[in-house]
Amino acid sequence: MYRYIGIEDLVASALIELIKHEESSRKISLQMLSDYGTVIVKLLTKQGQNAILFLTKESTYEFVHDYAEFFSIKVYDGIEYIELQNGITKEGLRDQFRKNLTVDLAKALTRSESLTALKISAMA
Q1: pLDDT per residue rounded down to tens, the chain (124 residues)
Q2: CA–CA distance, 120 with 104 (Å, rounded to integer)
């Protein structure tokens, strides 16, 4: 059986971790999100799971459209970012997106290797 890791598994968790590190962090580049997803898949694969990253531009745009009350896509200096809407908190993200995570995925999303992909020091 394969575990597909998609945009819905990555965005909120990445933003929660970024906000925990620095409260003003409210956006993540699509490239950094891809790097984060790649690390998550590697961690799960090391644990013996058949994990596959399913992250396309189309799935990203659909996700942002479906959750427009939470996110928007913005371009800064030619780089696309997923940005949190005003008024959305890390608690709101947790309530909406982290409630159905499996333990192994939740751990992978917050491991030091994953945080490094987000440019967060494990000591932060």
Answers
A1: 788 998 988 999 999 999 999 988 999 999 999 999 999 999 999 999 999 999 999 999 999 999 999 999 999 999 999 999 999 999 999 999 988 888 999 999 999 999 999 999 754 4
A2: 21
Dihedral sign for Cα 1, 32, 10, 44, please: positive
CB burial string 23-58: b at 16+ within 10 A, e below = eebbbbebebbebbbebbbbbbeeeebebebebeee
Extract the tokens encoding 83.
């940005």
Return the SS3 of 69. coil
Q: What is the DSSP string of 23-54?
A: TT--EEEHHHHHHHHHHHHHHHHHTT-EEEEE
- Give dist(CA 121, CA 80) in Å, integer: 23
Neighbour-count burial of 101, counting CB atoms closer than 10 A to its CB (0-12 exposed, 13-18 middle, 19+ buried):
middle
User: Going by C-beta distance under 8 Å and a sequence separation of 6 or more, which residues neighbour residue 49?
Assistant: 3, 104
pTM of the entire structure?
A: 0.91
